[in-house]
Design brief:
The complex is a heterodimer of chains A (456) and B (103). With 456 residues, chain A is an alpha+beta fold. Helix content of chain A is 29%, strand content 25%. Chain B contains four helices and six strands. In chain B, a hairpin with a 4-residue loop joins strand 4 and strand 5 (66-71). Chain B is elongated, with a radius of gyration of 13 Å. Classes of the chains: A alpha+beta (456), B alpha+beta (103). At the A-B interface, helix 9, strand 14, strand 15, strand 16 and strand 18 of A face strand 2, strand 3, strand 4, strand 5 and helix 4 of B.
Chain lengths: 456, 103
C-alpha cells in the first residue's frame, strides 16, 4: 500500500480555467487528476447536442486537453478521472482513444462508466413502482414526463473503483457525484472497506473541497482576498490522502493562490444543507466533526471526520423544458439615473400590457443599486452616482409575449427618459428555460456498467 | 459598541435549488460567540426581508466556528428558471456581512 496519494483538482465546472489541468500535471508531482465538468443544467445542454449529433453530448474541451496532458500523464504515471463524459461517455472515450493513438501512446486503458442515464427508462421505472417525485415540491413526475430533456442518476465512487481495479489510466463517467471522483482513488489505493463510513466520509469531504477548483485555494475568497497572491496563475487544490483517512489540502508551490484554514472553511460551507447530513451514494458525512489544523505553509490537515451509512437511494437529476425567457439592459447616466431607470421600467411595462403580453414573471433590477442584494441593499443617493444599468427579465409560456418584449427595449432610447445608452447586439431573443427536477431512485433499479478500451 | 459582521467573520454563499445557503465563519473564538448569540434565524430572516420569501434554517458548526443558514424560496425559482442577476445567491454572504451588530 502507498503511504500517501496526491489527488489534484483540474476543473471546478465546465468553463473553468482551461490551463488549470495542464498546470496541475506539469508543476509538481501528483498521482491523480480529477475534473468535474457537470452542473445540473449541463446535462440538458449535452442531451440537446446529442439529439442533433449522436457523436456529441460530452465536454468537448476534453479531447484537446488530453492531447496536451496525455504525454505528461504517461511519463509520470498520472491517472485521470472525470465526469465530463456527460450523456455520451462512450463517444468521449472514443475521441480520447483517437487522440492517444495519434500521439502513439500504446496500451493506454480508458474506462467508460455508463448506466446513469435513465431518460429512456422512465416509463419502465414508473411501471416498476418508482415514483420519481420532486424532492423539493413532492409533485408527481407525470406532470413533466413528456417534457423531460435529461434524467440521470448520480453514481458514487464505486464504479470508478472498479475501473481502477481493472487497470484503467483514464476514467470517463457520465453523471457521477463530484465527491466520488476524489474518494474513488483513496478506496482503490488504500483498500478501504465500503462499510468503513468514517473513511468514506473523509474522502467525501476531501472531494467537496476539491470539487469547485480554486474556490478552495483563494478564488472567490470573501476573507482577506487582497492577501491572495498571483491570482493570474492560481494553483488548484491538491488532496494528499493518507491510509488512516487524514487528508492534507495543499497546492503546487510554484503556483499562486493560498491554502489556509479560512480558504478551506469557506469551501466547506459552500452549497451545503444540514452539515451533519451531507448525503452521497457512498455515505452520509458529518461536517460538524471535521478538524482543520496547519501542517506547514499552504498545507491544511483535515482529520477526525465521522460518517454514517449511505441511504438505499440514488439521487436523480432530471431537466425539462419550461417556457421561455429573455433579458435586456439599458444604461442611464447622471442626472437622476435611478429615477429615469425606474421611469423606463414603468413605460416598458405599460406598453407591453397595452399590447396584451402575458408573463409569468417580469423582473427589473438596477445594477449599481440592488441587483445583487435586492431588498437588503442600502439606499443610494442618486446625485452621487454617475450611471446605473437597468436589467429587465421576463419569463413565461407564451413565446410571442417574450419575443415582443425583446422588440420593445431599443425604442426606449428615443421614446423615453434622456441620457440613455448601452443597447447593442440586436434585439434579445427568447431562450428556452430548462427547469430542474430532483428525485430519488432505489439503488437496485440501476446498475453501473464499466467497460475498458485500449490504445494500439 | 457597534460592529460590522464583516469585521469579525467571512463567509460564502451559493444555491441549493430555490434555496440559498449562506455560510458565515468567525475569525476567532470570541467572534464565534458573537455570531452564535446575535445571528439568530429570526434576525437573519428579518435582515433578508423581501429577499428570502420562505423559512430560514440555521445550523451550527463549532468545529469551524461557523454557522450555516438555508434561506428557502429565495432565488426566484433557482437554476436557469431564475431571472435574477444573482440567480445562485453568490453575493448573499457578502450582503449578510454588511449587517451591523451591537455588542
Amino acid at each position: 500500500m502507498k503511504e500517501k496519494i496526491r489527488i489534484a483538482s483540474g476543473q471546478g465546472f465546465w468553463g473553468d480555467l482551461i490551463e488549470a489541468p495542464y498546470w496541475q500535471v506539469t508543476s509538481g508531482e501528483i498521482d491523480y487528476l480529477v475534473m468535474d465538468y457537470l452542473a445540473e443544467v449541463t446535462m440538458s445542454i449535452l442531451q440537446k447536442q446529442k439529439n442533433k449529433d449522436p457523436k456529441s453530448g460530452y465536454a468537448r474541451d476534453i479531447p484537446p486537453l488530453m492531447k496536451r496532458i496525455l504525454p505528461v500523464c504517461r511519463e509520470k504515471g498520472i491517472k485521470v478521472i472525470t465526469n465530463g463524459g456527460g450523456v455520451n461517455p462512450v463517444a468521449c472515450a472514443e475521441a480520447i482513444l483517437e487522440v492517444a493513438n495519434e500521439l502513439g501512446i500504446s496500451g493506454l486503458k480508458i474506462a467508460v462508466i455508463e448506466g446513469d442515464n435513465i431518460k429512456d427508462r422512465i416509463d419502465a421505472l414508473i411501471a416498476e413502482g418508482s415514483e420519481l417525485s420532486n424532492m423539493e415540491t413532492g409533485d408527481s413526475i407525470l406532470s413533466v414526463k413528456e417534457k423531460l430533456l435529461s434524467a440521470n442518476v448520480y453514481f458514487g465512487a464505486f464504479p470508478i473503483v472498479e475501473a481502477l481495479g481493472k487497470g484503467a489510466d483514464i476514467i470517463i463517467t457520465g453523471r457521477t457525484t463530484d465527491t466520488g471522483l476524489t474518494l474513488a482513488p483513496m478506496i482503490h489505493e488504500f483498500g478501504w472497506s465500503a462499510e468503513d463510513f468514517d473513511k468514506m466520509a473523509a474522502g467525501t469531504v476531501a472531494g467537496h473541497i476539491l470539487e469547485c477548483g480554486a474556490q478552495a485555494t483563494g478564488g472567490n475568497f470573501l476573507g482577506d482576498w487582497e492577501s491572495i497572491e498571483n491570482f493570474e496563475k492560481i494553483g488548484f487544490p491538491i488532496a494528499e490522502a493518507f491510509p488512516n483517512g487524514d487528508v492534507v489540502i495543499t497546492k503546487h508551490e510554484s503556483l499562486g493562490g493560498a491554502v489556509t484554514i479560512e480558504t478551506v472553511s469557506e469551501q466547506l460551507l459552500y452549497e451545503i444543507g444540514d452539515p451533519a447530513e451531507y448525503i452521497t451514494p457512498d455515505c452520509i458525512a458529518d461536517f460538524t466533526t471535521i478538524q482543520l489544523s496547519y501542517d506547514g505553509k499552504d498545507r491544511v490537515r483535515m482529520s477526525g471526520v465521522k460518517g454514517k451509512p449511505y441511504t438505499p437511494f440514488y439521487k436523480v437529476s432530471c431537466s425539462y423544458e419550461s417556457g421561455y425567457s429573455s433579458f435586456a439592459t439599458l444604461t442611464y447616466s447622471w442626472p437622476q439615473a435611478l429615477t429615469k431607470a425606474k421611469a423606463a421600467d414603468r413605460i416598458l411595462r405599460k406598453r407591453l400590457e397595452a399590447l396584451g403580453c402575458r408573463f409569468e414573471e417580469f423582473r427589473t433590477e438596477f445594477v449599481g443599486y440592488n441587483a445583487c442584494h435586492g431588498a437588503a441593499a442600502k439606499e443610494i443617493d442618486e446625485d452621487n452616482i454617475n450611471e446605473l444599468m437597468v436589467r429587465f427579465a421576463v419569463r413565461g409560456d407564451d413565446y410571442n409575449s417574450i419575443d415582443r418584449f425583446g422588440k420593445e427595449i431599443a425604442p426606449l432610447i428615443l421614446t423615453g427618459p434622456p441620457a440613455v445608452t448601452g443597447f447593442s447586439g440586436g434585439r434579445p431573443k427568447p431562450g428556452a428555460v430548462v427547469a430542474y427536477w430532483p428525485a430519488l431512485l432505489k439503488k437496485e433499479s440501476v446498475t453501473p456498467v464499466v467497460t475498458i478500451m485500449e490504445t494500439k | 459598541m457597534r460592529i460590522k459582521l464583516k469585521d469579525i467573520a467571512h463567509g460564502r454563499s451559493g444555491d441549493k435549488g430555490d434555496a440559498a445557503n449562506v455560510g458565515i465563519i468567525a475569525y476567532d473564538d470570541d467572534g464565534y460567540e458573537i455570531i452564535k448569540t446575535h445571528l439568530t434565524k429570526e434576525r437573519v430572516k428579518e435582515y433578508f426581508t423581501g429577499v428570502c420569501l420562505g423559512e430560514v434554517d440555521r445550523f451550527e458548526l463549532p468545529n469551524l466556528r461557523a454557522l450555516n443558514f438555508i434561506l428557502h424560496n429565495t432565488l426566484g425559482g433557482g437554476g436557469t428558471v431564475s431571472l435574477k442577476l444573482d440567480a445562485q445567491g453568490k453575493t448573499l454572504a457578502a450582503a449578510l456581512l454588511r449587517m451591523e451588530i451591537e455588542i
